[in-house]
Amino acid sequence: xxxxxxxxxxYDAVETPFGKRDRMLGGAATHFALAASFFDTVHVVGPVGxxxxxxxxxxxxxxxxxxxxxxxxxxxxxxFWAGRYSANLNQRDTLDTQLNVFETFEPKLSDASKxxxxxxxxxxxxxxxxQVREQCAAAKFVAMDSMNLWIEIAREPLERVxxxxxxxxxxxxxIEQLTEAPNLVQAARRVLEMGPSVVVAKQxxxxxxxxxxxxxxxxxxxPLETVVDPTGAGDTFAGGFVGTIAxxxxxxxxxxxxxxxxxxxxxxxxASFNVEEFGTERVARLTPGExxxxxxxxxxxxxxxxxxxxxxx
Amino acid sequence: xxxxxxxxxxYDAVETPFGKRDRMLGGAATHFALAASFFDTVHVVGPVGxxxxxxxxxxxxxxxxxxxxxxxxxxxxxxFWAGRYSANLNQRDTLDTQLNVFETFEPKLSDASKxxxxxxxxxxxxxxxxQVREQCAAAKFVAMDSMNLWIEIAREPLERVxxxxxxxxxxxxxIEQLTEAPNLVQAARRVLEMGPSVVVAKQxxxxxxxxxxxxxxxxxxxPLETVVDPTGAGDTFAGGFVGTIAxxxxxxxxxxxxxxxxxxxxxxxxASFNVEEFGTERVARLTPGExxxxxxxxxxxxxxxxxxxxxxx
Lengths: 313, 313
Known about the structure:
Low-confidence stretches of chain A: none
Strand order of the largest sheet of chain A: 5-4-1-8-9-10-11-12-13
Mean pLDDT of chain A: 96
Largest interface: A-B, 66 and 66 residues
Distance between the termini of chain A: 59 Å
Oligomer: homodimer
Largest sheet of chain A: 9 strands, mixed
Shape of chain A: globular
Structural class of chain A: alpha/beta
Helix content of chain A: 25-40%
């Protein structure tokens, strides 16, 4: 069984109140793959330039991730993003975006990537997501991310690709923007009417919510004393979430609400490791044995029982 | 047993995307009392003007709330606030604030109010909170709210009153502002060092978090299809939370983490009713029988188990 991800491989320059990195491995597909590789064999599809270092390719290949479809564009430069976070990490300013090899990217999937049971379309231009979706006809579960830019300038193809997937994973405010709904519950319902059977709203430091036609689930972010760099947290979350589904399908388990809830918890736990250090540093050396304690803690800090205090009339 | 609340009684003019009210009953003490009255006898302390209508006093007295210490100031006008919410209710602009009788308010507590086992200091100027706290020497559990204005212009007395209470209930961003901490976990820890043994961070539409010296708990807001007016949600939450503690003390139950978690759930459930209609409209006619279903639903939509999918190395 396998899980294919199509998206950006990047170099990031990031400055947070806790330090900076001038050039570190990043990109949505990178963060996704590092998390999802705990669950299934990941095939990464995306372009890099001549400048992409062998040691970064080795990081990408952590836990057996297949990098055969990472296209090295001769004479090209790897996608570059530079950003700076505010003191409380709530805001970030993009200082520089260089599309580089992404400007002319045409996804070419090997037969192995096309044959994956599960597909994740990371945030790239919707027309490319459609191309990839059509190439992966065998996929049993397809999830996608997107961003406010495409809602604003490419709404028609974005709505088309949303209609071709099983699961939309998007920031809560973007879901509200996409649907023009006044709150998340209504917004999620409208997305479910567009095609997907599962909607996941990422709420940043507040956690995430999942919606299906007849149920929903809410989980907080894993509380941390120290958050060093939020870059890639959403893609790491997606990697844990979609990875769980891929592993369940591979094991012949049903993708029911119980499985989806657990997938949300694993996504949350993996994202919490991601933000503890810059870029991919923490998740690249994360071991499977470190994860269950966070799942158990997340369960503990969200559990309650009715206190049974009598109510007055 | 009894629960005393000191704070504002007001008339509010509110405009949301779903309608408007030119003059409706409001104020922190009002919203708090309506929620807390499900749990214990509430004594309300606060000033109103000649213009305060008898029917509004009757609403305040719902479920046996004692209004003997509502001071009617001859020739005075009731506190007035006017605000307008944005399309998604995420932002609100204050259009008008008239302190009126609050400008010269000096809290005068009857012996009955002073004798309460539990005290809630709603958001008023910190010096008045200190005065009231000192008058209620018998209180076994004291909670307080505040706001960004006092952090900015009255930090010293604010820190003093925080040192005199058991529980601070404040918006998450205000807790971060107060402590100048980079995230909520660190911020809550610093508040715990200032005196309180319990810190509750209100996160608006995202829910709330509770911190003690050695534990924490996170609950989402109760998801609603329709939110009409968020005014008073935080005070309604506080009423359900502090009310639970008052009822537990009255019943001789320990205020342990299990009780506090349940109290968070009841605060959340009550706040969810509050926002379904304008001002006090919904909670004033809420019946005890409607509440448990929301507690059960909140429990259901936050529960998960480890999915047991094997992790790869």
